[in-house]
Amino acid sequence: MQDYCRAFIAVEINDAVRAGLAGVQNVLKEANGHVSWVQPQNIHGTLVFLGDIFQSAVDSVANTLAKTAAGCKPFEIEISGIGFFGSARSPRIIWAGVTGQVDALIELQGKIAATILQAGLKPDEQPFKPHLTIGRVRSNRNATDLVCALEENKNKTFGKISVRQVVLMQSRLMAKGPEYTLLQAAVLDG
């Protein structure tokens, strides 16, 4: 039986943005919601979630990603605002927003998803909504306080990211949370 690799393609963030997001996580933690907070070192912008792929397919995905990225120009986005997916009664995902050259990010994501599909893999079919997940709500405990804290902090700005590469990452689900390993970086130089 072949080994599988749980994988995704993402945009990494810089240390300044990471520190700002860690700071807002600390503020939001005071609301005492039942939230699994993403470890600051693991925060990223997912472009395409691949799920479980054969280990033998990793090189092919990496090559496809490198070719696609090579045809795209670098661009800049800003991480700004926080909010949630779900309803005020039942928030599910707490996110930081993406502004700036969002059209370039959406175009990059579309090209990568299309080439992954052409390569015979089936990426996640959820519509792409540019964001960074910073927490996953586990229950409605103190949801009202959490939503109020999100509202109070909704206009925070965390900084700019120069998108010059995308990364293929492996995700291992561990008891202490996911562990990510870089498999391949692909440079945008179109």
Outline:
The chain has 190 residues and is an alpha+beta fold.
Main beta-sheet strand count, sense and barrel state: 5 strands, antiparallel
β-sheet strand percentage: 35-45%
What is the CATH third-level topology name?
Answer: Cyclic Phosphodiesterase, Chain: A
Distance between the termini: 39 Å
How would you portray this structure in words?
With 190 residues, the chain is an alpha+beta fold. It has a single domain, classed as Alpha-Beta Complex (Cyclic Phosphodiesterase, Chain: A), CATH 3.90.1140. The chain contains four helices and nine strands, in the order E-H-E-E-H-E-E-H-E-H-E-E-E. The protein has helices at residues 15-29, 58-70, 102-118, 143-152, and strands spanning 4-12, 35-37, 44-54, 75-86, 91-100, 131-137, 157-163, 165-174, 177-187. The strands form two sheets. A five-stranded antiparallel beta sheet has the order 2-6-5-4-7, sandwiched between helices. Strands 3-1-8-9 form a four-stranded antiparallel beta sheet. The mean pLDDT is 93.
Topology:
Layout: E1 4-12, H1 15-29, E2 35-37, E3 44-54, H2 58-70, E4 75-86, E5 91-100, H3 102-118, E6 131-137, H4 143-152, E7 157-163, E8 165-174, E9 177-187
Antiparallel strand pairs: 1-3, 1-8, 2-6, 4-5, 4-7, 5-6, 8-9
Helix pairs in contact: 2-3
